[in-house]
Amino acid sequence: MLPVGSAGEKREAVETILRWISDHQVDWAASGQVPARLSAQAALDPVNYPSNILLGQTFSEYGVQDPKSPVVQEMYAILEPELDAALNNLKTPEQALNDAAERMQQAVDRAF
């Protein structure tokens, strides 16, 4: 992502760092990261990176992109504290989910 109006040296600097990040994905696999690029995943050595490869395959097979919605982040922000309340016995699971559903519906109604 480039800031609007980026030009000259600033643009070149951003492009350089993005290229560097992308080009070093395989190196980061040693820390447990799964490369985002499929070509980088394919370059992993199966002897040294079996878990990275397995995780990468499951991302490709089962991964789901977040829905494209103007309120998806707000909905996560609503749901997370309700789940926390249920998991910490501050609310029943039913009450937490009902509260989350009510607030999430309000967010959707505002957006659409």
Describe the structure in your own words.
- With 112 residues, this protein is mostly helical.
- The protein folds into two domains: 55 residues, no CATH class; 40 residues, no CATH class.
- It contains six helices and no strands.
- Helix 5 runs antiparallel to helix 6.
- The longest helix is centred in the C-terminal third of the chain and has 19 residues.
- It is flat, with a radius of gyration of 20 Å.
- The two termini are 27 Å apart.
Q: Mean pLDDT, rounded to whole units? A: 88
Uncertain runs are: none
Q: Tell me the strand percentage band.
A: under 5%
N-to-C order of helices and strands: HHHHHH
Total count of strands: 0
Quaternary organisation of the protein chains: single chain
**Distance from first to last alpha carbon:** 27 Å
Q: Which class best fits the helix and strand makeup? A: mainly alpha
Number of structural domains: 2
Q: Report helical residue fraction.
A: 55-70%
Shape: flat
What does the largest sheet look like? none
Q: Measured on Cα atoms, how large is the radius of gyration?
A: 20 Å
- Note the total helix count: 6
Sum this structure up briefly.
The protein is mainly alpha-helical. It has two domains: 8-62, no CATH class; 72-111, no CATH class.
Topology:
Layout: H1 8-23, H2 25-28, H3 38-42, H4 50-62, H5 72-87, H6 93-111
Question: What attributes characterize this protein structure?
Answer:
112 residues; mainly alpha
